[in-house]
Amino acid sequence: MSTLKIREIQQQDNQQVKKVIQEVLVELGVPKVGTAYEDKALDDMTAEYDAERKAYFVIEEDSKIIGCCGIGPLPGFETEICELQKMYFLPEARGKGLGAQMMDTCLKFAKSQDYKKCYIETLPYMKDACKLYKKTGFEELEKPLGNTGHYNCTVWMIKEL
């Protein structure tokens, strides 16, 4: 019987998290430039999210990280808007409702930090993710907000918290 849990990232998770993110991006054929694939933060996600109003969560199954997602302030809108960041799931994590559970965990954290809205950037062919975001109440925007550096992401969404 497997044990699944969502918890905050720990130092020993860094390499597994980087591997999950990069594997999923390669699987989906995402460009390596202008996306999370090349983010320097992937080398030490624990340090990246060890800051005020930021948190990064992992889904662990039998000591293996199978999914991850974080919340952080949106550059340029730090006081009011957070960004749902780096939400990725390995194939074995998909179709089990874990995305909805992770989304709930992240949005509860965002509300606890007094953010008013949550922003997401993604790609149009990440259909399951887009479906989850819409189901959770995110609405599409015509142009990006903030300065995330992910210029290859062409779908922008926002949700009131």
Shape: globular
Average pLDDT works out at 93
Poorly predicted runs are none
Largest sheet: 7 strands, mixed
User: Biggest sheet, strands in spatial order?
Assistant: 1-2-3-4-5-7-6
Draw up the topology in text.
Blueprint: E1 4-8, H1 14-27, H2 45-48, E2 55-61, E3 64-73, E4 81-89, H3 98-112, E5 117-122, H4 127-135, E6 139-140, E7 155-160
Parallel strand pairs: 4-5
Antiparallel strand pairs: 1-2, 2-3, 3-4, 5-7, 6-7
Tell me what the structure shows.
It is globular and about 45 Å long. The protein contains four helices and seven strands, in the order E-H-H-E-E-E-H-E-H-E-E. The protein has a seven-stranded mixed beta sheet. With 161 residues, it is of the alpha+beta class. It has helices at 14-27, 45-48, 98-112, 127-135; strands at 4-8, 55-61, 64-73, 81-89, 117-122, 139-140, 155-160. Strand 2 and strand 3 form a beta hairpin.
Search tags:
161 residues
Summarize this entry quickly.
The chain has 161 residues and is an alpha+beta fold. 26% of the residues lie in helices and 28% in strands. The model has no long low-confidence stretch (mean pLDDT 93).
